[in-house]
Amino acid sequence: SSLRVVYAFAREMHPKTSEVFIEYGTAGFRTKANLLEHVVYRMGLLAVIRSRVKNGRTIGIMITASHNLEPDNGVKLVDPDGEMLEQSWEEIATRLANVSDNDLESTTEQVIKQVNADMSLKASVFIGMDTRYTSPRLAAAAANGVIALKGTPKEFGIVTTPMLHFCVKCRNDNTYGTPTEEGYYEKIVGAFKKIRQKLTVCGDYNTTLYVDGANGVGGKKLNIIKKTLDGELDLQLFNIGGNGGKLNLNCGADFVKVSQKAPVGIEHVPFQRVASLDGDGDRLVYYYIDDKNNMNLLDGDRIATLLASYIAELLRACEASSDLQIGLVQTAYANGASTKYITEDLKVPVSCVKTGVKHLHHAALSYDIGVYFEANGHGTVVYSTKAKEVIAKVAQEGEPEQRKAAQLLQNFIDMTNETVGDAISDLFLVETVLCARGHGVKQWMSSYADLPCRQLKVTVQDRNAISTTDAERQCTAPEGLQTRIDELVRPYSCGRAFVRPSGTEDVVRVYAEADTQLSADKLAAEVAQAVY
Ligand code: NG1
Ligand code: ZN
């Protein structure tokens, strides 16, 4: 059959060169770039099968390793509504990635049967990539996979991960926007400009924003956006590639959050807001250096509370807060002080779920308006159809003051990339709230005080020997470990600690918080010792 030819071609062009088992994890497949070509080709095949199972709706393939260093790369699939690949397909992806070249044909046939794909249907696949030098070759391998099964690939070139999610969503639902990079700017940046016309710059808010682009794709795209801004925001971009800056090396959101240090490559001015993106533009944290040269981090929890409190405020102004339930979703990594603030001061319900955006996104959908963020800065807001309808009605029929609030909220919704956490969209959301309130970093920071915390990684023989429960806050295996952690935590004031196996690296992660940095560091070290 013609498929015979296809598999012969695959062996020839994208042979499997490694025997190392690879698994579709929290962020798809991620490893050294030179081990990925056959994996990406096979994901091209799988995307076509998935598109056919979804009646020809478009599927996305993103080539990126996010905040990892340059030698790594990765691939993940995007489902038709712009969300992460359905979990039950992760095992299928893993199976297809690991079979030998000789078994690829029979395994693909098996998968087609298993998922009951009608291979006579059309299939459409959008492919995007980050700025890594290994990405173009991998994107081409993905396209070859798509073509092999007679699907239609569309290559977007270098885009942020959230841009690709957005485009997939728009292609399958044209009410959401236009499925191009320009369509993305039109909707997200367009809404920001509209909202800025309605606000006056006041108080301590300053339109200058410094940006750490992690030498990745996010900074590059902000450089395009910068030219279309008209005084609404004065972006000073650093680490956008060039000047020998290396991707994610001592810069970017992950570096800033985990090391709690300012990135290299930026000139610092006391109290100047700096937004730090990660390598593929889906994470955002803020920070500033104060007059004592201390680093002050405004992380994902801080962004979540800022957005949730502003949305709640607008809902009250619309008099829609009794109809619409707003909720916040966090993980165990959320700073305990943020959870306390959300519950006691904002009085917004909060749920805690397992690490991984798919879990947060899913939980957020159970609210009329769900705000979800990982402490590392990955998150967004999702609005139910009911919420959008209620707000639209007020925007049309409400009293003048209510109408104004509802229209602001509509712009706010348009500015949000609801498909997935998006550093660029989140940056515009944050800037909007700060501007609306006339707040600078000091006021933003004053809402609550973070508990000092520390994250560590421990390399162990078998990280999967550790099992957890209660949204990863408690260990169930190995036996005795949880009891030991409880003992270690007990003497610390405001102490909390947990361990879990990473889903993206071969390590166990340790998290600890306590009333002082010294205590948090000490507790983390003690727990790490107990794991080891
Ligand atoms: P792992 O390696 O499973 O901890 C990390 C992040 C997640 C998520 C994924 C995907 C932390 C502690 N973990 O997962 O939040 O972003 O990467 O990128 O930040
Ligand atoms: Zn990322």
Automatic annotation (TrEMBL):
Cofactor comment: Binds 1 Mg(2+) ion per subunit.
Alpha-D-phosphohexomutase alpha/beta/alpha domain ranges (all copies): 58-98, 110-169
InterPro entries (alphabetical): A-D-PHexomutase_a/b/a-I, A-D-PHexomutase_a/b/a-I/II/III, A-D-PHexomutase_C, A-D-PHexomutase_C_sf, AMG1_II, AMG1_III, PAGM
Biological processes, Gene Ontology terms: carbohydrate metabolic process; cell wall organization; UDP-N-acetylglucosamine biosynthetic process
Pfam families in UniProt: AMG1_II, AMG1_III, PGM_PMM_I, PGM_PMM_IV
Phosphoacetylglucosamine mutase AMG1 domain location: 178-285, 299-437
EC number assigned by the record: 5.4.2.3
Residues annotated as domain Alpha-D-phosphohexomutase C-terminal: 485-529
Record: residues binding substrate: 374-376, 500-504, 509
Catalytic reaction(s) noted: N-acetyl-alpha-D-glucosamine 1-phosphate = N-acetyl-D-glucosamine 6-phosphate
Active site: 66
Pathway the protein acts in: Nucleotide-sugar biosynthesis; UDP-N-acetyl-alpha-D-glucosamine biosynthesis; N-acetyl-alpha-D-glucosamine 1-phosphate from alpha-D-glucosamine 6-phosphate (route I): step 2/2
Function (record text): Catalyzes the conversion of GlcNAc-6-P into GlcNAc-1-P during the synthesis of uridine diphosphate/UDP-GlcNAc, which is a biosynthetic precursor of chitin and also supplies the amino sugars for N-linked oligosaccharides of glycoproteins. Catalyzes the conversion of GlcNAc-6-P into GlcNAc-1-P during the synthesis of uridine diphosphate/UDP-GlcNAc, a sugar nucleotide critical to multiple glycosylation pathways including protein N- and O-glycosylation.
Family: Belongs to the phosphohexose mutase family.
Name of this protein: Phosphoacetylglucosamine mutase
Higher taxonomy: Eukaryota, Metazoa, Ecdysozoa, Arthropoda, Hexapoda
